[in-house]
Amino acid sequence: MKQSNEKPHHTGHRDRLRSRFIDNGASALADYELLELLLFMAIPRRDVKPLAKDLIKRFHGIENVFAASVTELTSVKGVSDTTAIALKSVEAAAKRMLQAGVENKPVLSSWSRLIDYCTAQMAREKVEQFRVLYLNRKNVLIADEVHQRGTVDQSAVFPREILARALTHGATAVILVHNHPSGDPTPSDTDITLTHDVIRAMQPLDITVHDHLIIAKTGHTSFKKLGLI
Q: Whole-prediction pTM value?
């Protein structure tokens, strides 16, 4: 039987999509088309448009595709470990870029970048995460540490742990950050009490708590702007 040299129909589609991206940038592509471009590299010999659309539908948006775990991604028909890792590596690279935008810089003068960084790190976490940003005298970010995962512990030990780490880093100020997986960034009574406990723990050593941010998928809340600090 004579073999056909005809290229699969999706080859021309891939070429056209690449050309649109090169000529006009990502803004010229729909979300599923941008996802297609990434899937091209992980799945070179298959029409990936249906898979791109399925992923966006399944996870309710391209941002949630990248935020999904490897296990969640590979539960989708057509997504191998290699494909899932390729998608997660894009998320990791994006987080590194945002981190580079705030590291070793005065964070109070680049607040929007800080919010973007915290949002990328925490907004789509499925469990509550409490992290502390440690700043030096010039309010430059010198460390970012996750102190707790799961329900935030309000015990007296927790503020002392933050104080001990501040002294280790030589920090003169901190920003508290945690996420609300529910999607509602409204502070709870526990959040407010814990914040005041940390402030009291820091006061004897003149370590300032600049703010406490609550990050959620729907937005963020600043204790400072609410007048809670």
A: 0.76
